[in-house]
Every structure is written in C-alpha cells, then in structure tokens.
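Can anyone check this?
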Amino acid sequence: MERVLVVNAGSSSLKLRLLGPDDDVLADREVERWDGDPGHADIAEFVRGLDAVDAVGHRVVHGGSRFTAATVLDDDVVAAVEDLVPLAPLHQPRALAGIRATATLLPGVPAVACFDTAFHVTLPPAAQTYALPAEWNRRFGLRRFGFHGLSHAWTARRAAELLSRPLSEVRLVSAHLGAGASLCAVAGGRSVATTMGFTPLEGLVMATRSGDVDPGLLLWLQQQADVTVEDLADGLERRSGLAGLSGTSGDMRDVLAGVDAGDPDARLAYDVWLYRLRAGVAAMAAAMGGIDALAFTGGIGEHVARARADACAGLAFLGLAVDDAANATTTADGVIGGAVVVVTAREDLQVATEVRAVLR
C-alpha cells in the first residue's frame, strides 16, 4: 500500500491527504466549512489531481460494539456504519458521504474504515459502565465508547517522543481541544479513561455541544417545559456549548474576542469551558494514580496559547505549568513546560498506519 488517501470528515470540515510510502505528504486539501458534498465535487476535484491511489482510509467516529479495529469496507460494513448515525449525528453522515464519494470516484481501490472508538476498547469495566439497570445495558448495548481515539493514539505516541520517554512508562493526559473536545488518560500506551461516552456529546464543553448535563434537567425540560425530543437533540448538539452561552459562533477566537471586548456572556462561556477542562484533567489523572505529562492537540490545543496557559494556571497542584515564552511561540510539536507539550493533530498518520496493517 504505497499511496494511502486519508479522508477525515469532521463535524464541519473535510481534510484530504495523500500519504506516500514513508508517510510523506504527496497532496493535501482542507475544506474548512464542508456541507457533506452531496455531489462529491470537493473530493472529486482533489482525486482528479492525484496520479495514483493504492488504498483509502476513512476516519469514522462511531464504531459501536461491533467495530473494535480498522475494518475493510464493504456493503455490510457501510450499512452498519449507517445504523450508528443516531449516536453521532454530526459526524457519521459526513463520514458516509466521504465513503460513498471515494467508492464512486475510485472503484476497485480498497477502502478501510478506521474508528475513533477503537482506541478505547481497553477501557476497564469500571470506566466504561454506566450505573443504569444492568438489563438495559445488556439489552441495548449501553456503555461508554469514547471518541477522538485516532487523535489520542497519535498524540500519546508523539508526546512520548517529544519527552524522550518510552510510551509504556508515561501516564499522559491527551487533550484534544477543538470544535469537539475530549480528554483521554493514556497509561502504558492504553486508554484507561476518557470524557466522551455513549455518544460524542458527553464530557467537556464544546463549540456547539453541551458536554455533561444533569439527566434530571433534561427530563424536566421534556416533562415540565414541553421541549420536544427533536428540540432537545438540536439544542444539545448545535445550540449549546460555547455558542449557546456566548451568543457567538462557538469558535474560540470569537469567544476570546468577546472576552477582550468586555462581553459578560463571552466571559462566562470561557470560564465554564476552563472550569470543565481543568476538572476533567484532574479526573483523568486520578484514573491513572497520577500524571506525568499533559499534551494539547486539536485546533484550540495547537493554536490558542492563551487557552493552554489559562488551563494550566489552575493545574499547578498536578505539577503542570507552561513556560510563557515557549507557550507563546509554539504552534507545532514542542515542549512548552516541564510536563506539558503541544502535538500537531495527525490523525492521517494513524489512519494510514491502520490501513496498511489491515490490508497487509
């Protein structure tokens, strides 16, 4: 598998990258605002400019209980991925759009689905089990799956390299902070705790997603305030988080502009985001019995030095602190404190690695 085309369809963006045999980038394109491309125009334009593609790897957010490793795509697998759309409504349809586009544009080229949930199959029972009626858990397959696994897997590997330590000996918290956000406790190279759960809605405050909310509050909204299931789903997925609190788009740049302009709603949104982030990092450390390093990745984690500094300002009790000069100038792989690093998100490298392993 010399040339692997990686298709990374996010909740709002599309990243296309062709990697060569040594993982060198032969071509790439990013569509920041991607609508799912029903006519395949964005992907077709990119594919037509490529000399050859030997395999395609797709990032798929939810693999459910069935898919615990990268899997060669066929009609049955695509149907199973489609069945999981209700569990990841912002992501799964876009992954399916990418899968269908490349199947049309590159007939006969083997394609592999690489699942964000697969990295978290190592979660111990206590970390993956909801305290719901056991019969519900068994009947409906309810459990905490975790997400951003491709990102967390790469971040852990790269962070250990930056710190010149064997991954097997590092207790690391990987902080994937972007429009979607999650934390992962990686001990000995394995996921042992994470903030997202049955869906990518649980956990940290995100751009438009709420993160953790008291389930009793949601019941109250349905029973006492006549909020429909449809309105509840839309509100939690698309109108909450930083956007819902601040009245902005939810982009951290817009939120911080509001903070600097003295907007109290933006200030509260940012403070809530920080509060949940710090609490989450502490919880991940507790799951490992301590922490050796914190790695920031994702759009915010890589590019918003202010957010990194503010997060670590509340985590000194864990031995985490940033060097102000290093933090201010680092936007790529680098150490910004004794135990704090920034890692460029390279889900494409993780996908290509998994594709080659499956097809070989």
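Reply from J.R.: I decoded it. The longest strand covers residues 25-31.
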